[in-house]
Amino acid sequence: MVNGKDAWVEEFVLHHIGGGAVESTFSDYSAVLKGEEEQVFLRKLFLKPFAQMAITSEFAHAVGLEYNVLYNLSEEARNGADLVANSVSIAKHLVDISRHHNIKGGDLFVVRMNGVGLGNERYGALGIYKFEEKEVFIESRTADGKVSMWLNRGLGSLKPNKACLVVFTPEAPTVFVVDDNEATEYWQKDFIGHRPKNDHVNSTSNVLELTKTFITEQLPQEFDLPKADQIDLLNRSVQYFKENAAFDRSAFTQQVFEEEGMIDAFDRFGKAYKEEKSVAFDDHFEISTHAVKRQARVFKSVLKLDKNFHIYIHGDRDRIERGVDERTGRKFYKIYYDEET
């Protein structure tokens, strides 16, 4: 989702957030690393955690957006505020809300970036990363014909335990959230304060998830539908999203379900699904190819027959025929093919 190929890390500040009785330490300077090798490392450290995300968020607050502390601090950063002072305010905001929770201490990076890719556009961004662990590595040095080495602790291949990337898209920022423990309300709600964004990315994911749930859970309750037909519907659903640049609800239901009874059942289920899951999507929206690629992984096209056979169904449903042996009463599938590979 987030493309860091052309991004540039302008500067970053490192603070230490205390845990328990340990006091927090706030830096009074920022680091700037302009070398290409350093930039490659920084892009990997700060942007790779968001590369595969297919969920977008936006800042929110129960009373009003102006009461969201991180939103206000992010807007200051967008408008060119000094990063050191801005990052200290961010770190203190985290410390303040953390006093009410038993949280781990760790290193907190606040990073200013530009050229962060989202879709086909590039934007400025503010990244906030909390590392609660460090990895052990061997550091070596050669001098005077001798090789010395020792163990050290630091950051390298580790992912942040918690992170927030604020991409300064037009009108309102687009927010991405990383959390290694979904139960940490202090990070999700108290520190960031966010909700799913009503955009084409989430709309694509939501409709695909709705469709999968309908076909695999609801449809068998209303229609006598063989498993092979369910898989065929799943394949046709994903195919629609892969072949079209925009979603049209009417065209989608006609192409996938065809029968009016199934279409009506899908529409009813969709209304109930929106209310139950508290999600929103329109009847028409641009399709996110990244969301399709990620969501399609959970669309199972495997027909399991007892414990003996697994049949992968990827194409023409008409090449599979289902029946029952008249003599034994055992069920069977007859498969037609042109050549064996």
Order of secondary-structure elements:
EEHEHHEEEEEEHEHHEHHEHEEEE
Overall helicity? 25-40%
What does the overall shape look like?
Answer: elongated
Determine the N-to-C terminus distance: 36 Å
Work out the strand percent: 25-35%
The radius of gyration is 26 Å
On the 0 to 100 scale, the average pLDDT is 86
Main sheet makeup: 6 strands, antiparallel
Given the helix and strand composition, which structural class is it?
alpha+beta
Query: Could you give the count of β-strands?
Result: 16
Tally of alpha and pi helices: 9
Uncertain spans: none
What features would you describe in this structure?
α5 runs parallel beside α9 (289-295). This protein has helices at residues 36-47, 69-78, 83-98, 185-192, 200-222, 227-243, 249-256, 260-277, 289-295, and strands at residues 2-3, 8-17, 57-59, 106-118, 121-131, 135-143, 146-154, 162-167, 174-179, 194-196, 246-248, 284-286, 302-305, 309-312, 320-324, 331-335. The longest helix has 23 residues, at 200-222. The strands form 6 sheets. Strands 1, 2, 4, 5, 8 and 9 form a 6-stranded antiparallel beta sheet that branches. A two-stranded antiparallel ribbon has the order 3-10. A two-stranded antiparallel ribbon has the order 6-7. It folds into 2 domains: 2-197, no CATH class; 201-335, no CATH class. The chain is an alpha+beta fold and 341 residues long. The mean pLDDT is 86. A hairpin with a 6-residue loop joins β15 (320-324) and β16 (331-335). It contains 9 helices and 16 strands. It is elongated and about 85 Å long.
